[in-house]
Design brief:
Oligomer: heterotrimer
Structural class of chain A: alpha/beta
Number of helices of chain A: 18
Strand content of chain A: 5-15%
Distance between the termini of chain C: 46 Å
Number of strands of chain C: 4
Shape of chain A: globular
Largest interface: A-C, 50 and 54 residues
Largest sheet of chain C: 2 strands, antiparallel
CATH class of the largest domain in chain C: Mainly Alpha
Largest sheet of chain A: 5 strands, mixed
Strand order of the largest sheet of chain C: 1-2
CATH architecture of the largest domain in chain C: Orthogonal Bundle
Helix content of chain A: 40-55%
Chains: A alpha/beta (434), B alpha+beta (367), C mainly alpha (330)
Shape of chain C: globular
Radius of gyration of chain A: 22 Å
Chain lengths: 434, 367, 330
C-alpha cells in the first residue's frame, strides 16, 4: 500500500531471489580462463541458456528466433529460455533486468546498447570482460574500430555487438514529394523551404511522436549534429562538456521551428504512429531511426515506391549509430552455454541470420551484402564510408542518468516550445555527464 | 386545535388492503387510541393521517381541510415514532429546534420554546448531548419534546412506549396523559397494548384486519364489547368463551354447555329471546367468576358449579385459578383468601348478570 | 479449612501468560506478521535509509548524505510540477467522484425500474484495471489532426455536428492560469491535459463511490426522513439536512480510499499519457519510476517514494486515529 511499485517489485524479486537461492545457488563467478577455445563456436550439449532482451515485435523477434535456431543446431540439447519484456522501447525490460541484477539473479546474457549504457553495468561489477574471448573468436579483426571503442572500457572489451542501427534518417512520402515537385531537404534551410511549401498545400510537413518519450529528444540530436558538426557533436556528451555554447540555443531555435511545422497532437502519438502518418500521406516527412524501415516493410510498403530515405537535414555524410550487443553476466548460471551464444552473436553466420530480419546492418565488415535489401545495402555502405557519431538517446553516447535528464528537457520543450527554458535545462542536465 | 375525520378511506398495497372502508370521527382535544393486534391497519391509518402514505380512496380531513393532497409538512401535525427517529447527527437542542428552524421562526422564540419543552420533560440538562449518548427513556422524551415545541394542532404517536422497560412505561404513560391535559390538543395514539389503550384514551378505536370493530369510551368497550374480537382483546386475562346452546326448561332459560347448564337471569331473557334453541357463544370475564366462599355482596348466587382446580396463580391482591368441569376450562379471578388448591375441588359462582352472549355465526354481541 | 481450599486452588487458577490457545494463536499469526515486518516495514525502512545515501548507478552505495536527495528533488522544476499535478488530479478526481457517485446513488436509490441493471452498469468499470482504462481513454482522447482530420472523441463530435466541441485534450499544453512565482520552477495552475485523465479516473471509480453511497443511503432509516418531513422539511431539505449529514462517514471513507488511490496513481497515467505533454500530467509515481529505473538514481527515487509515503500517511493516519476514537465511543 505504501511505497508502491518499486517497493513491490523489490519485494517480489527478493522473495524470488530467496526462493531460488534456497534451491541450489549457482557457483559464484566461474574462472574466466576457460580452456583454449577453437575459433569456431564451442559446441555445448545439455544445460540451459537464458537470454534477456526486449525484442518482442515482429521483425526483431523473428531475427532473435533465427539466431536461436542456429544456436540449437550448433548446441543440441541446450534449452533456451527466451526472457523478453515488451514495451517502453526497452524501459520496462531494463527495469526488470536491474531488479534481477540487484537480487543477484542475472540471466546468462542480456541485450545492452553498446556505449555508455554498457559501462554502467561494468561499473556495477555485473559483467565479465571478454577481451580474451574476442581475440580467440577473431572479432577484433572484423568489427569496425569505432565500434570496438564503444565496447571497450577500462582497457577491456565487455560485450559482443550484434547489429548497427542508424538513428539520423529522414523518411519521406515519395508521392507527396513528386506531386509537389519537391526533393528531400539536404540542409536545415532546405527543410524549412520544403516545409513551407507543404504547409501551404495543407500537408503536415513533419510527423513527430511523443508518447514513447524519446521522439523529440531523438529529433533534437539530429539537429544538434547538424549545428555542431561531426567533430563537436560527440564532445557535447563528454564529462564537463560546455553547454553554454551559443550553438545550443541556435539548435533549440531550429528545433522549435521544426516542431511548429509538425502535427499538434505529438504527445498522443508514438513514433510508429508518426511514421504511419507519413505512410498514409497525411504527413510528408519524419525523422526516425531505421527501425522505421522495419515498420514500413511490416505494413507492406515498398521502399523507393511508397517511401524514401535520406540523411536527416544537415546530417549528410555523418552516420549516427547505435548498436545492440550482448555481454556475459558475472555469476551467469550457465557460462559455457552463454559463451557459445556470444560466439554466435559475433559470427558472420549469426549476424546474417539476425539482421536482415531485424532491419539493421551487421556489426561486422565482412557480411554477405546480397542478403540485405536496398536500404540496408545503402546503410552498410554508409556505415563503412561516412563519419560515425554515437546516438545519445539510444544509450551510445552518454550515461542513462544523463539520457533521462536530456530526454525530459526536450519532452518539456516539445510541449511549451520555450527556448530559454530548454537551454537552461540542458545546461543543468550536463551535470549528469560523468 | 382540530377535529379529524376519516371518510370511507381505503388503503391498498398491491393486492393487500390495509384499510377497508375506514371511517372515524375524532373530536377536537380528544385523546383517541387506535388499538389492535399487529397488522390490523392502525399504523397505516396514522401514517395516512400524517401524509406519509397516500390513501387509495376516501378522504381525510383535519379541521375543515381535506388533506389528501397536502404534504406532511403542511398538515400542522407532529409525530412521535416508535423508534423515536431522532436525528443522530444533531444535538438534543437541534433535534427539537429543527422543525422550528425550517419554519423560519425567530431564534429567540425557538430558544424559548425548546427550553420550555425541555423543562416540562425534565431534559434541560441534556440539550447539548447527541442522541446516542442518551438512555432509551431520555430519547423518548426528546422525541416528545420535538413534537411539543412545534405547537401542532394534532399529535400523532406510533407506539411510543413499546421500547421502554415495564416500569418506565407505566410512568411515561401517566406523563403523556398529563401532557394531553396540559396541551389541550388532539392526540392520536397507536398501540397494540390494551392496558395503554384503556388507561390513556378518552375513546378507543379497536381495529382488526383493516376494519374498525368498535369505537367507544374505555368503560363501554369493556362492559359492552360489540363482538367476540373486541371482547377477547380488551381485558386481561381475556374473557372465557364457550360454545353453548340456549334452551328452555323449568320455566326459565338455560345456557346448555353439555356437561352442565346455567340459568339466564330473567332480566336478560328479552335480549336473547329470538336465539332460544340456537347455538351461541357464551362469554364470561374471569372477574365475574367467584369462589363460592367469598362471593361479593349483591351477586346472585344461583349459578353454582363444582370444578376441579388445574392451576393456581397467586398474585397477592388476587388469585388466578384455571378450573374445569367436564372438559370446559375457564380462568377465574378469585378473592385472595380462596382455599383453591391444585387438584382439589372448588365450588364457584358465576355472575350470570355479567354474561355475554354472541351470535354463533356473526360473533356479534346479543347482550 | 476454607482458607486452605482457597490456597490450594490458587496455582490451578493462575492465568499463565502463555496458555495453549495463545501459543496457537501466536503460531498462526507469526508467518504473516514476520512477512509483513520484513516485506512491508522492513522495506519501508530500507527505502528510507536508501533515500539518505548517495546511491547512483547500478552498484549499491551506502554513504550517508542526510537530506541532500530531498533537497535535490524538491528543487527540480520537474518534481515541483509533479506535486502540482498531483494536487490538481487529486482535488478534481475526489470532487468529481464524490459528486457523481452521490448523484448516481440517489438516482439508483429512487427505486427506478431496472435498478440492478443500472447499478451493475455503473459499477462495472471498477472491475477493469487502470491499465485497460488508460489505454481505452488514450484512444478516445487522442485528438488527431483536429479540427479537420480528428480521431477519437473529436471525430465523434465532428460527425455528430458538434465540431465546435473539439479540443486538444491530452495534448493540450496550457496551464491555466499558469502563474509564475518567484523561487518556484513550475507554473501554478491547472494543466489542461490533466482534465481527460481525471475524466478517465472518474469514469472508473465513481461507480464504486456510488456503491458506497448506496449502502449508506440504504442504511438511513426511513423513519428519520419521515420525521423530518413531518417536522416541515421539503424533499430537498430532507436531503440537505438529514441524508447528506448522515452520509458523512461514507464520504470520509470514500475520501480516504480514493485519496490514497489518487496520491499513488501510476498505471492510469503511464498508459494514458505517459506524463505528456511535457511533464503536464506527470505525477511523483511516474517520476520515481523513471529516475530509479531509467536514470539509475536509486537514492533520489527512494526519496520520492518517501515523500509519497508521507503524503499518503498525512491522509490516512488522521483517519485511523478518528476511526479508533469513534470505535471506542461506540
Amino acid at each position: 500500500m505504501l511505497t508502491t511499485k518499486w517497493l513491490k517489485l523489490f519485494g517480489v524479486f527478493s522473495i524470488l531471489a530467496l526462493a531460488l537461492a534456497a534451491c541450489g545457488a549457482p557457483a559464484p563467478s566461474q574462472p574466466t580462463a576457460a580452456p583454449a577455445q577453437p575459433t569456431t563456436a564451442p559446441a555445448q550439449t545439455g544445460g540451459k541458456l537464458e537470454i534477456f532482451s526486449w525484442w518482442t515485435n515482429a521483425g526483431e523477434a523473428d531475427g532473435l528466433n533465427a539466431m536461436f535456431e542456429l544456436y540449437k543446431q550448433q548446441n543440441p540439447g541446450v534449452e533456451i529460455i527466451n526472457a523478453t519484456v515488451a514495451g517502453g522501447a526497452g524501459t520496462n525490460a531494463k527495469t526488470v533486468l536491474k531488479t534481477r541484477l540487484q537480487g543477484g539473479q542475472p540471466p546468462d546474457s542480456w541485450q545492452v546498447h553498446a556505449g555508455k549504457e554498457l559501462t554502467s553495468y561494468v561499473d556495477a561489477g555485473q559483467m565479465v570482460p571478454l577481451t580474451q574471448f574476442f581475440k580467440e573468436q577473431g572479432f577484433d579483426k572484423v568489427m569496425p574500430p569505432k565500434l570496438l571503442e564503444q565496447i571497450t572500457y577500462k582497457g577491456e572489451i565487455w560485450s559482443v555487438p550484434v547489429n548497427i542501427h542508424r538513428s539520423n534518417v529522414l523518411w519521406y512520402n515519395i508521392k507527396i514529394f513528386q506531386e509537389n515537385g519537391l526533393t528531400p531537404p539536404k540542409t536545415i534551410d532546405d527543410f524549412f523551404k520544403v516545409a513551407e511549401a507543404l504547409k501551404a498545400k495543407g500537408i503536415i510537413p513533419l510527423a513527430v511522436g511523443g508518447k514513447d518519450r524519446f521522439e523529440t529528444p531523438h529529433l533534437f540530436e539530429s539537429v544538434l549534429l547538424a549545428v555542431f558538426g561531426p567533430e563537436d557533436y560527440p564532445k557535447l556528451f563528454q564529462p564537463g562538456a560546455d553547454w553554454s555554447d551559443p550553438r545550443v540555443r541556435q539548435a533549440a531555435e531550429i528545433a522549435k521551428r521544426m516542431l511548429e511545422y509538425s502535427n499538434s497532437d505529438r504527445s498522443s502519438l508514438g513514433w510508429a504512429d508518426a511514421a504511419q502518418l507519413v505512410l498514409d500521406g497525411k504527413a510528408a516527412m519524419t525523422i526516425m531511426g531505421d527501425w522505421a524501415h522495419g515498420y514500413f516493410i511490416g505494413k507492406g510498403a515498398k521502399v523507393g515506391v511508397d517511401y524514401g530515405y535520406a540523411p536527416a537535414p544537415g546530417n549528410e555524410g555523418v552516420f549516427m549509430w547505435l548498436s545492440d550487443s550482448f555481454g556475459l553476466a558475472k555469476g551467469a548460471p550457465n557460462p559455457e552455454q552463454a559463451k557459445a551464444w556470444l560466439a554466435l552473436c559475433g559470427s558472420r553466420e549469426g549476424q546474417d541470420a539476425f539482421n536482415p530480419k531485424k532491419g539493421s546492418i551487421p556489426a561486422r565488415t565482412d557480411a554477405d551484402v546480397s542478403l540485405y535489401d536496398e536500404y540496408l545495402q545503402y546503410s552498410i555502405k554508409a556505415f563503412s564510408s561516412e563519419k560515425l557519431v554515437p546516438s545519445v538517446v539510444h544509450g551510445a553516447a552518454a550515461p542513462e542518468a544523463y539520457m533521462t535528464e536530456y530526454g525530459n528537457a526536450l519532452n518539456v520543450f516539445a510541449s511549451d516550445l520555450d527556448v530559454d527554458a530548454v537551454v537552461e535545462a540542458l545546461k543543468d542536465a550536463a551535470k549528469d555527464l560523468k | 386545535m382540530a377535529s379529524i375525520k376519516f371518510d370511507h378511506v381505503w388503503k391498498r398495497f398491491g393486492d393487500f388492503a390495509a384499510l377497508k372502508d375506514f371511517t372515524l370521527d375524532v373530536a377536537d382535544q380528544e385523546f383517541l387510541v387506535l388499538v389492535g393486534p399487529s397488522g390490523c391497519g392502525k399504523t397505516t391509518a396514522l401514517r395516512c393521517l400524517a401524509g406519509l402514505e397516500e390513501v387509495t380512496s376516501g378522504t381525510i380531513m383535519i379541521g375543515d381541510r381535506v388533506v389528501n393532497d397536502i404534504p406532511p409538512k403542511d398538515r400542522d401535525i407532529a409525530m412521535v415514532f416508535q423508534s423515536y427517529a431522532l436525528y443522530p447527527h444533531m444535538s438534543v437542542y437541534d433535534n427539537m429546534a429543527f422543525g422550528l428552524k425550517l419554519r423560519k421562526i425567530p431564534k429567540a422564540e425557538i430558544d424559548r420554546r425548546v427550553k420550555e419543552a425541555a423543562e416540562m420533560l425534565q431534559i434541560g440538562h441534556l440539550l447539548d448531548r447527541k442522541p446516542k449518548a442518551l438512555s432509551g427513556g431520555q430519547r423518548q422524551r426528546v422525541a416528545l419534546g420535538r413534537a411539543i415545541v412545534r405547537h401542532p394542532s394534532v399529535f400523532l404517536m406510533d407506539e411510543p412506549l413499546s421500547n421502554l422497560d415495564a416500569k418506565l412505561r407505566v410512568q411515561t404513560r401517566a406523563e403523556i396523559s398529563k401532557l394531553h391535559q396540559r396541551l389541550k390538543t388532539t392526540f392520536i395514539y397507536v398501540t397494540h397494548d390494551q392496558t395503554e389503550a384503556m388507561t390513556m384514551g378518552t375513546r378507543i378505536a379497536v381495529m382488526r384486519d383493516g376494519v374498525l370493530q368498535q369505537l367507544d369510551t374505555p368503560q363501554n368497550l369493556y362492559d359492552h364489547p360489540a363482538n367476540m374480537f373486541v371482547a377477547g382483546f380488551i381485558g386481561s386475562p381475556s374473557m372465557n368463551f364457550f360454545e353453548a346452546t340456549l334452551v328452555r326448561g323449568d320455566g326459565q332459560v338455560l345456557v346448555d354447555f353439555g356437561p352442565f347448564q346455567l340459568p339466564v337471569p330473567p332480566s336478560r331473557i328479552d335480549a336473547i329471546a329470538d336465539h332460544i334453541g340456537m347455538p351461541i357463544f357464551f362469554g364470561i370475564r374471569p372477574e365475574d367468576i367467584h369462589d363460592a366462599h367469598y362471593v361479593p355482596r349483591g351477586v346472585d348466587e344461583s349459578a353454582r358449579l363444582m370444578t376441579t382446580v388445574n392451576v393456581v396463580e397467586p398474585l397477592g391482591s388476587e388469585v388466578y385459578a384455571y378450573v374445569e368441569n367436564g372438559g370446559k376450562e375457564m380462568v377465574a379471578r378469585l378473592d385472595p383468601r380462596t382455599k383453591a388448591r391444585t387438584g382439589e375441588v372448588l365450588e364457584i359462582i358465576i355472575d350470570m348478570s355479567k354474561m355475554h352472549i354472541f351470535d354463533r355465526d356473526t360473533e356479534r354481541a346479543l347482550i | 479449612m476454607q482458607q486452605a481450599e482457597t490456597l490450594s486452588a490458587r496455582p490451578a487458577r493462575r492465568v499463565r501468560w502463555m496458555n495453549r490457545d495463545r501459543a496457537i494463536a501466536l503460531l498462526m499469526i507469526a508467518p504473516s506478521a514476520l512477512a509483513i515486518a520484513v516485506f512491508v516495514y522492513g522495506f519501508i525502512g530500507w527505502t528510507a535509509y536508501i533515500s539518505m545515501t548517495d546511491w547512483r548507478g547500478l552498484a549499491i552505495s551506502t554513504s550517508f548524505v542526510g537530506f541532500d536527495n530531498y533537497l535535490t528533488i524538491f528543487s527540480t522544476g520537474r518534481f515541483q510540477t509533479n506535486i502540482r499535478n498531483l494536487i490538481v488530479f487529486t482535488l478534481f478526481f475526489l470532487a468529481s467522484c464524490l459528486v457523481i457517485g452521490l448523484l448516481l446513488a440517489v438516482l439508483v436509490d429512487a427505486r427506478i425500474r431496472f435498478e440492478g441493471f443500472f447499478r451493475s452498469v455503473y459499477i462495472f468499470p471498477m472491475a477493469l484495471s487502470f491499465i485497460v482504462t488508460g489505454v481505452v481513454w488514450q484512444w478516445l482522447f487522442a485528438p488527431g489532426n483536429w479540427p479537420n482530420d480528428p480521431t477519437g472523441i473529436n471525430l465523434l463530435f465532428k460527425q455528430s455536428g458538434l465540431g465546435f466541441l473539439q479540443a486538444a485534450w491530452t495534448t493540450d499544453t496550457n496551464v491555466v492560469p499558469g502563474w509564475r512565482i518567484e523561487g518556484l520552477r513550475t507554473r501554478i495552475g491547472i494543466p489542461m491535459a490533466m482534465i481527460p485523465v481525471v475524466v478517465a479516473a472518474v469514469w472508473q471509480m465513481s461507480g464504486f463511490v456510488m456503491a458506497m453511497y448506496l449502502a449508506g443511503l440504504r442504511g438511513i432509516p426511513d423513519e428519520i426522513k419521515e420525521a423530518a418531513r413531518v417536522d416541515g422539511a421539503t424533499e430537498w431539505q430532507v436531503f440537505r439536512h438529514i441524508t447528506l449529514p448522515m452520509l458523512q462517514p461514507i464520504t470520509l471513507s470514500a475520501v480516504i480510499i480514493l485519496g490514497h488511490i489518487s496520491l499513488k496513481i501510476f498505471d492510469l497515467i503511464i498508459t494514458m499519457t505517459g506524463g505528456a505533454p511535457g511533464n503536464n500530467t506527470e505525477v511523483p509515481g511516474l517520476y520515481m519510476y523513471e529516475i530509479t529505473f531509467k536514470a539509475n538514481k536509486f537514492a533520489e527515487g527512494a526519496a520520492v517514494a518517501m515523500v509519497m509515503l508521507v503524503v499518503v500517511a498525512l491522509l490516512v493516519v488522521p483517519y485511523l486515529i478518528y476511526n479508533r476514537r469513534t470505535e471506542v465511543e461506540r
